[in-house]
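> forwarded from #structure-qc
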C-alpha cells in the first residue's frame, strides 16, 4: 500500500489525497530552483501537494510564496502540509485555475519575481480513468501555451520562469517562449548516467535580453553507477532535504 506521507528533514508532505505523489522530478526541480534562483515573490503554478513551495521556503527565508492548484482536494491537503511546516506564514495557497488567478492578481497589480512549475506533460496519450490524475498529468487541463502566457502576464519587470520538462518537450516550450519574448537563460539536462540521453530538462526563462546574459547549459547526473539512482550531483543538491543523506 503506498505511503500516505513523505518525510523530509524539516517538513513532511501528506499526499494520499493528491493525484501526483511526491516524486523524483519535483524534489530535484525544487532543490535546483530554490538554490539557484533567488526571489522574494514566488508563484508556484499547479502546486499539488505544496512540495515545490515548501522546498523553496526552506532555502529562501525571505521568500513569500503563492501556490495555485485547480484541484480543490489537492489544494486542501497542500494547505494542511503548509500549516504543519515551519513556513506557514510565508506560503499562501489558492484553489483556482491559473487563468482565474491571473485575472485576480492583475486587478490587484500583483506581480512575481519568479514563477515555478512542474507542469502536466502528457499530450494525446492514454488517459487514466481517474479524472484527478488525468488533470494532474495531461496538458489537456493546462497547456504549455496557457501556462506560459499566464506566467508571463504575472512577471515583475525582471521576473523569471523556471520549469522541469521531459526533454522531448523542450523544443516546443522554447518556441512558445520565443513567441512570448521570453529568453532562455539556463538549461540543465538531467541524465541518469553520462552515456544515456537526458530524460528531463530544467529550464529558466526571463524577460532579460538573451544577448546580454549568455545562456548557461549544464548537465546533471542523477546516478553514477555506484549510488544509482542517487549520484553525487543529485545527493549534493538534495542533501538538506532527504532524511537518508
Amino acid at each position: 500500500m503506498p505511503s500516505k506521507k513523505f518525510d523530509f528533514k524539516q517538513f513532511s508532505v501528506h499526499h494520499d489525497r493528491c493525484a501526483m505523489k511526491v516524486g523524483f522530478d519535483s524534489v530535484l526541480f525544487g532543490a535546483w530552483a530554490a538554490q539557484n534562483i533567488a526571489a522574494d515573490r514566488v508563484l508556484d503554478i499547479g502546486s499539488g501537494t505544496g512540495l515545490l513551495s515548501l522546498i523553496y521556503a526552506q532555502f529562501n527565508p525571505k521568500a513569500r510564496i503563492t501556490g495555485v492548484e485547480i484541484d480543490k482536494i489537492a489544494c486542501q491537503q497542500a494547505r494542511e502540509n503548509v500549516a504543519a511546516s515551519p513556513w506557514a506564514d510565508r506560503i499562501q495557497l489558492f484553489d483556482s485555475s491559473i487563468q482565474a488567478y491571473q485575472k485576480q492578481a492583475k486587478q490587484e497589480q500583483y506581480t512575481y519575481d519568479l514563477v515555478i512549475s512542474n507542469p502536466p506533460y502528457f499530450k494525446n496519450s492514454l488517459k487514466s480513468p481517474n479524472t484527478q490524475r488525468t488533470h494532474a498529468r495531461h496538458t489537456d487541463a493546462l497547456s504549455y501555451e496557457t501556462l506560459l502566457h499566464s506566467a508571463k502576464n504575472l512577471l515583475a519587470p525582471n521576473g523569471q520562469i523556471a520549469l522541469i520538462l521531459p526533454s522531448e518537450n523542450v523544443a516546443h516550450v522554447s518556441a512558445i517562449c520565443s513567441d512570448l519574448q521570453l529568453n532562455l537563460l539556463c538549461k540543465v539536462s538531467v541524465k541518469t548516467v553520462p552515456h544515456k540521453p537526458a530524460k528531463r530538462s530544467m529550464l529558466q526563462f526571463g524577460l532579460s535580453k538573451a544577448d546580454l546574459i549568455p545562456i548557461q547549459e549544464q548537465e546533471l547526473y542523477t546516478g553514477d553507477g555506484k549510488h544509482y539512482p542517487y549520484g553525487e550531483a543529485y545527493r549534493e543538491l538534495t542533501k538538506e532535504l532527504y532524511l537518508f543523506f
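QC bot note: Confidence is low (pLDDT under 50) at residues 124-139. The longest helix spans residues 24-36.
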